[in-house]
Amino acid sequence: MLNWVVVGIGDITTKRVMPAIQIEPRSRLYGVVTRTPDKGRPWAERIWTNLDDALADPEVRAAYVATPVALHAPQTIAALRAGKHVLCEKPVALNYAQACQMTRTARETGRTLGIAYYRRMYPKLQRARQLMAEGAIGRPVLAEINCHDWFTDADGRRSWLLDPAWSGGGPLYDIASHRIDVLNFVFGQPVAVAAQISNVVHPTAVEDSATLLIEYEQGTRGVVDVRWHSRVARDEFRIIGTEGEMELSPLSGPALVWPGGREELPCHANLHYPCVENFVNAVLDGAHLYSSGESAIWTDWVTHQALNSVTGYSFPNS
Known about the structure:
- With 318 residues, the protein is an alpha/beta fold.
- 34% of the residues lie in helices and 27% in strands.
- The chain is globular.
């Protein structure tokens, strides 16, 4: 049995993470860490307002870190050094250096570090990799993936996303990180990145749009386009090969189409559940961890390279 403490209570944890822990058969929601105890009372008997106090409890075996990005590295490192396994929200950290420090600490402590890139466990992504390995579209040469939405934090509930000191950036850190990770999962190690980031509509401290060009080891080129200034929502993903095309739009939908075939492969009703379940299996049984810290930091590497390619960009503090 894995006793969990959830650090941070927000939309992701209340809608997906804590319900996933509650129904995972070898997990127990042991307690929560929150600055507002009233938020934690519907979920757990044990409520801490200080992370160190929670980590001092020997019954705690795993921590889910779901705080703003700026806290991922210090809180994850503290939990690992306290002997706890950690599943952390995405992106891994505020910058690539911090992400590397997190994975280094996991190696030094011998604890498991996972990152909640849950899309890696989508059945249709697993199937797409299989089909490409079988040559369904020939040699993959181009992948196009985008996510467009409108975000201004009008209700004031997620204002930290507009503060680069807490979030690292705008849609590049928030929604692009998932798409970059999808490309890394499908195509392997990225080797070169170029980008354009801008504020086209919203005069905020973070960008409202970003476009990345990513080259992969085997020659596939990925284009990632993310925007917070479109009232037309898009969530598209297609892969073009030398012999055909694979359509996976919308990314979170069930449809997978390739030359001569179509399948409907829905994901779990709770998108985080397979991620939590896989993490538990990795900790308790030594199963393969689909989204380990070591594999997930390649998204932070891509982000670092992207920002480095933008003239005049100032990196978040390390």
